[in-house]
Design goal:
By secondary structure, this protein is of the alpha/beta class. The chain folds into two domains: 187 residues, 3-Layer(aba) Sandwich (Rossmann fold); 169 residues, Glycogen Phosphorylase B (Rossmann fold, 3-Layer(aba) Sandwich). It has an eight-stranded mixed beta sheet, with helices on both faces. α3 links the parallel β7 and β8.
Amino acid sequence: MRVLHVLKTFFPDTYGGIEQVVHTIASHTTPLGVENRVLVLTPGKPRTDMSPEGYQIVRYKRDLYVASTGFSLSLLANFKKEAAWADVLHMHFPWPYADLCYVLSGIKKPSLISYHSDVVNQVQLNKLYAPLRDFYLGKMSKIYAASPGIMQSSPVLQKHKDKVRLITYGIQHFEAHAETDPEVQAWRTQFGPRFFLFLGALRYYKGLHVLLEALKGRDYPTVIVGRGDQHDALIAQAKQLGLTNLHFVPEVTNDEKRSLMRAAYGFVFPSHMPSEAFGIVLAEAAQQGTPMITCEIGTGTSYVNLDGVTGLVVPPSDAQSFGHALDTFWQQPEQVQGWGQQALVRYQETFKAGTMAQKYMAAYGELLAAPD
């Protein structure tokens, strides 16, 4: 079976949640007999690469980048040829240019789509784009969302709810680090025996300004790992608030990330806008048995972190509520330990890559078995 994944960008040009999900699907369905190919744009030279996991990456030259959307004349000219190679087209939303390429190429091929998030910004452009988007989604056999939250909250998915199905994200399996691991102990020596951790891109929708406001007057040891355009503003805000126990770490390796998550007392994720459609990093925290504090934004974050089960969920953009959640964590270590144990169980039951791969294999098989 040949499956062509279509998304706007990929490693190493960008590292984001959608890229990680597509990599995980491709790398875990390849051993099951799927020949995967990933079709993307690149700001560099057009080329074809073979990933170490055995799937192909075809990169077309990006000619223009406007409103977070890449455009490529060469991709449009060759899209039908690329689609002809595949038995199944696996589209990945959002990327409006892919909608255009698909529709203009007159594709008649078994097609499904993973709906990763709504288009939240570009409100006026989104109104112009809506007819193309809805026509394109109407062409899909099935639309797969990653959480019940986005299935219920997305106005776009509500228009197509008869064909929307759930396949939640899974992550590559790693065993949780032991408390006694030297790497875990090293982080606790550096930051303290109990510290809160955020890890991710420092973007506007991550709500980190709310976290910093919540730390005012508390100043619990907190580590923020990541890069992004909000870095300087956060540094200035921390200084203005007088936070002295806040540590900024630009980046860590994947191995360091897992040990750091295990070392953390609690994982804080104050994303306050639905641009945060899932939060794969939450599943990674759960894999290490680390309880979480998140915000209710109507997407997948409250699907990974169950309020009162794996941690706490608070209203978005509410520093007072987030601060109270931090207090609860700090004052109730036995409860926090229990939440962490339940987070690990939830990961094992729901968020493994192998589970996601098997479900997509079934979706591909169903699609190929269906009548035209």
